[in-house]
Amino acid sequence: QGASFTISSLGGIGGTYFAPIINAPEVAILGVSKAAMKPVWDGKEFVPRLICPLSLTADHRVIDGALATRFNVYISQLLADFRRAVL
After folding, report:
1. Of the candidates 51, 4, 57, 5, which has an alpha carbon nearest to the alpha carbon of residue 31?
2. Is the dihedral angle over the CA atoms 48, 45, 17, 63 positive or is it negative?
3. Which of 33, 69, 72, 83 is the most buried (most CB within 10 A)?
4. 3-state secondary structure at position 16
5. Hey, which residues does 46 pair with through a beta bridge?
6. What residues does 56 pair with on adjacent strands?
């Protein structure tokens, strides 16, 4: 009650990708899916990386796509180097 943003996770039950639906009157919701090891090209070879799919749904009356994208990039950077999140 009174929130503006929700984080929803289906990873615990094996959800891989989903499009979360905004809970009115909130303005955005972040969906977190199940993390898994995937091969990622590092420029020279494929290396195993832990990948955690994120889905952001935003009310475009409040948040435009560019701002939502910058938020996703910021969250991804924090999760990639978690030490930054706790400093």
Report:
1. 57
2. positive
3. 33
4. coil
5. 41
6. 30
Residues 54, 43: Cα–Cα separation, whole Å: 24
What are the sequence ranges of the domains in the chain?
5-84
| Strand 28-32 with 5-9, pairing | parallel
SS3 37: strand
Active site residues: 60
pLDDT at residue 37 in the model? 94
Cα→Cα distances 6→19, 29, 32, 34, 81, Å: 13, 5, 11, 17, 23
Tens of pLDDT along the chain (87 residues) come to 788 999 999 878 877 888 899 998 999 999 999 989 999 999 999 999 999 899 999 999 999 999 999 999 999 888 888 777 776
Task: Give the number of C-alpha atoms closer than 13 A to the C-alpha of residue 55, restricted to the C-beta side.
Answer: 17
